């Protein structure tokens, strides 16, 4: 039961406006009754009431409301400012890490350019050659005259690790079969890599039939495969540090004006001591269809340079057959997965029919396939080193023995897509037929 102390004069119910205003200004009491009943000695019920009151002043209530509104109004900007601070701190730490790395690399061969230099040599990023997961590639020209490909990195991932990977690996080496990094730019979020220009684009558009593409001769295809093998061999054994590429595939092989192949795209590469026979990785990395099985199945062997050997073997098979290793539209279901089918053909003593090929060309193709089958053995220990691969490719096909069947199953599935450190899309693949320089993305 509730009661109030207003009006104060219970005998005079007529209250003036002034009284009302005074009560509102100075407050009024709200109270409620709490009855306590008991039975007395005469067995009569007695009830006592005790009141609990609350005095509330209007201006006090307004002060409370004002406080709450002020706290809310000030709190939202504080939260926003905190989030901006955290974002800037994360990105600044990334830029600081990149700058610290660059300062520590006193033996870097590439030139460091300012962003204004990059804009100038690309003519304001006018001529776009391609676009990929890490950014866009533009045609540029150095003041000294040579054309270059400028890879502008966007959407920074892994704290700028892809930028550091490329500069740390190809920034310190020079080989005829490895794309040359001429320079770089690192100004906060503005990061770029400047490469030698490859006018004939990626190998992908030549080994897979595409509209308007000119197929390579078997002899030229063989020479390209040998050049790629030399390039990977150099990465594994020709440097003071062992460089594992982890993304060997047709798209990442560039061709210069003379069709000399260059291994490119070192965004997933890792540097290791030459004494490290087994390396540690937190997750599989590379492009599905070319990734070595030990990156998924730890029980078949440790991860080493043999992972690149496997990827090269899958590349070599596609070069020799001029088709994807996995082709759901093959003429016969047995040919859907080419490695299994071709192993069965050779094991039975059958040769592959190649239209308009000479006997010498057929031998070259057979040699490339046998070497590839050695490279894609399931266990890393059964695969040759790249030094041995070069030796086999340069030798005679009659000297080669057939390897064991390289697969645990006769028809392994090959999904499409890329895999990175967190099994996300970190490789920068394009669909076949893109612009010539896009493969360096």
TrEMBL record:
Region (Disordered): 404-441
Cellular component annotations (GO), alphabetically ordered: membrane
Compartments where located: Membrane
Annotated keywords: ATP-binding, Glycoprotein, Kinase, Membrane, Nucleotide-binding, Serine/threonine-protein kinase, Signal, Transferase, Transmembrane, Transmembrane helix
GO MF annotation: an example: protein serine/threonine kinase activity
Pfam entry (one): Pkinase
Biased composition (Low complexity): 425-441
Membrane topology label: Single-pass type I membrane protein
Ranges of residues in domain Protein kinase: 123-408
Positions with a binding annotation for ATP: 151
Chain segments annotated as coiled-coil in the UniProt record: none
InterPro entries reported for this sequence: Kinase-like_dom_sf (IPR011009), LRK10/LRL21-25-like (IPR045874), Prot_kinase_dom (IPR000719), Protein_kinase_ATP_BS (IPR017441), Ser/Thr_kinase_AS (IPR008271)
Signal peptide: none
PANTHER family per record: RUST RESISTANCE KINASE LR10-RELATED (PTHR27009)
Family: Belongs to the protein kinase superfamily.
Protein name: Protein kinase domain-containing protein
Protein's organism: Lithocarpus litseifolius
């Amino acid at each position: 039961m509730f009661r109030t102390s207003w009006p104060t004069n219970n005998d005079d119910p007529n209250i003036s406006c002034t009284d009302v205003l005074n009560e509102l200004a100075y407050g009024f009491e709200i109270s409620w009754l709490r009855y306590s009943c008991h039975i007395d000695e005469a067995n009569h019920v007695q009830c006592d009431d005790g009141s609990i009151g609350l005095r509330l002043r209007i201006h006090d209530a307004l002060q409370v409301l004002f406080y709450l509104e002020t706290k809310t109004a000030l709190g939202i900007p504080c939260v926003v400012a905190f989030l901006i601070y955290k974002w800037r701190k994360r990105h600044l730490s990334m830029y600081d890490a990149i700058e610290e790395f660059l300062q520590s690399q006193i033996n870097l061969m590439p030139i460091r350019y300012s962003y204004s230099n990059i804009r100038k040599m690309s003519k304001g990023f006018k001529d776009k050659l391609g676009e990929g997961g890490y950014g866009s590639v533009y045609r540029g020209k150095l003041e000294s005259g040579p054309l270059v490909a400028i890879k502008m990195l966007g959407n920074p991932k892994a704290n700028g690790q892809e930028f550091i990977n490329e500069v740390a690996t190809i920034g310190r080496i020079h080989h005829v079969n490895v794309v040359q990094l001429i320079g770089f730019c690192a100004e906060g979020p503005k990061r770029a890599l400047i490469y030698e220009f490859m006018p004939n684009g990626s190998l992908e558009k030549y080994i897979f039939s595409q509209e308007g593409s000119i197929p390579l001769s078997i002899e030229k295809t063989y020479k390209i495969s040998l050049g790629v093998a030399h390039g990977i061999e150099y990465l594994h054994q020709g440097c003071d540090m062992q460089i594992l590429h982890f993304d060997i595939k047709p798209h990442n092989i560039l061709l210069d004006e003379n069709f000399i192949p260059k291994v490119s795209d070192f965004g997933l590469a890792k540097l290791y001591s030459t004494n490290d026979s087994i390396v540690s990785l937190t997750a599989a990395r590379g492009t599905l269809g070319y990734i070595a099985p030990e990156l998924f199945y730890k029980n078949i062997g440790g991860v080493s340079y043999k992972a690149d050997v496997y990827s090269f073997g899958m590349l070599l098979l596609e070069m020799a057959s001029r088709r994807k290793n996995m082709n759901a539209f093959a003429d016969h279901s047995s040919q859907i997965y080419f490695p299994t089918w071709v192993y069965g053909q050779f094991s039975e003593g059958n040769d592959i029919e190649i239209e308009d090929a000479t006997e010498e060309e057929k031998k070259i193709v057979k040699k490339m396939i046998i070497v590839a089958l050695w490279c894609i053995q399931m266990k890393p220990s059964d695969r040759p080193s790249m030094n041995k691969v070069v030796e086999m490719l340069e030798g005679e096909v009659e000297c080669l023995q057939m390897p064991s069947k390289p697969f645990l199953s006769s028809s392994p599935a090959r999904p499409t897509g890329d895999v990175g450190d967190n099994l996300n899309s970190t490789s920068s693949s394009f669909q076949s037929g893109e612009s010539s320089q896009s493969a360096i993305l």
